[in-house]
Automatic annotation (TrEMBL):
Subcellular location: Cell membrane
Protein's recorded name: GPC5 protein
InterPro entries: Glypican, Glypican_CS
Membrane topology: Lipid-anchor; GPI-anchor
Family that this chain belongs to: Belongs to the glypican family.
Primary location recorded for the protein, binned into one broad class: membrane
Source organism per UniProt: Melospiza melodia (Song sparrow)
Gene it is expressed from: Gpc5_0
């Protein structure tokens, strides 16, 4: 009553054993594919972590640099500016991770929060009544009177270009993990599991427990079983090409590192621009928002002090080098995995599964 391991000679197998063999080959095949996937998945997950650590290092450096700017050059508003600065860099981090936000909204929200502080602490430091209504009026007015000139828009443009590739790379790596995970759970068809039993276990029914499948026979069976997985080959190659493109974009002229390191400079230029245009801004704000309460003798506006480069270059260079090295290592490895899905049958038929160095092997029906 055997359905798979039918043979002319007497056999020691039963139909129940055939069913056990089918369960065994399904389990073994899943484990084999998981083992193949493990190295690839391990490398991708490792690089996702490494990239994220490098991003976070650069973001912390850029945030600290920006905070130092306020503490050294704009001390009257440093304490209140800490929260908007923190929110800006949190938004940038979330954007890189794929959150539903934009660089433009993050940057403009930052400058909306910054303007009331610049206006009341630097341009008109005598203001004593900074009510919620007045603050909100200043926030809304910022969009119309553009106190920071072209610097806020330039910052949006520069960051958008450089962060886009980082965001796409982060999403692409997550997609790669999803693809690999999906192949681990590809169901074997009934015909495939029967073919695998015939290849691996039918010799046992003849007492031939040490005979292994012939190489060509194994390849034919595996290619048939994994045809659906092998169809990923073209898309996987395209995926690797996309990763190459994204990593080269990240290393191009609009580098993430350079853009993040320059945030403090853009903000500094924007604040200086607002200070230089203080009288005109005050006249416009008074018309729109009214005149707030002032201290007696109205303090003169804060003196404008040009700011030199904030220290910390060594930290930046280390993070920059780390990210560049990670990129090179990662793309070099991924290029080598270009044929991963095309060669999956060959990989599964490698090693102990088949007979390579002997003149006798199992061809599905007999020892040859």
């Amino acid at each position: 009553d055997l359905q798979i391991c039918q043979h002319r000679a007497p056999t020691c197998c039963t139909k129940k054993m055939e069913e056990s063999y089918q369960a065994a080959v399904r389990r073994e095949r899943a484990q084999s594919i998981q083992a193949l996937n493990f190295e690839l998945k391990y490398m991708i997950v490792g690089h996702i972590t490494a990239f994220q650590e490098a991003f976070e290092s650069l973001l912390r450096f850029a945030e600290n640099r920006t905070s130092s700017l306020f503490e050294t050059a704009y001390r009257p508003m440093a304490k209140e500016a800490a929260e908007p600065v923190k929110e800006l860099f949190t938004d940038i981090s979330l954007y890189i991770l794929g959150a539903e936000t934009t660089v433009e909204s993050a940057v403009l929200r930052f400058f909306d929060s910054l303007f009331p502080l610049v206006y009341s602490r630097l341009i008109n430091p005598g203001i004593t009544d900074l009510s919620e209504d007045y603050t909100e009026c200043l926030r809304l007015t910022r969009q119309d009177i553009n106190p920071f000139g072209h610097y806020s828009k330039n910052m949006v443009t520069e960051l958008s270009r450089s962060l886009w590739a980082s965001r796409m790379l982060s999403q692409a790596l997550s997609l790669g993990i999803e693809v690999i995970n999906s192949t681990e759970h590809a169901a074997l068809s009934k015909e495939c599991s029967r073919a695998l039993v015939r290849m691996q276990y039918c010799p046992h029914c003849q007492g031939l427990t040490l005979i292994r499948p012939c190489v060509g026979y194994c390849l034919n069976v595996m290619r048939g079983c994994l045809a659906s997985v092998a169809e990923l080959d073209a898309q996987w190659r395209e995926f690797i090409s996309t990763l190459e493109y994204l990593t080269s974009e990240m290393a191009a002229s609009h580098e993430l590192e350079t853009a993040l390191a320059g945030i403090w400079s853009s903000i500094n230029e924007a604040v200086l621009h607002a200070q230089l245009n203080g009288p005109q801004l005050s006249a416009t704000v008074d018309k729109v928002c009214g005149q707030p309460k002032q201290q007696e003798g109205n303090l003169s506006s804060a003196s404008i002090v040009p700011v030199k480069e904030v220290t910390g270059t060594q930290t930046f260079v280390m993070a920059h080098t780390s990210l560049n090295n990670r990129r090179r290592e990662f793309i070099s490895y991924m290029k080598r995995s270009r044929t991963f899905y095309a060669s999956i049958a060959e990989r599964l038929c490698d090693g102990d599964l088949v007979m390579r160095d002997s003149s006798t092997c199992w061809n599905g029906e007999d020892v040859v």
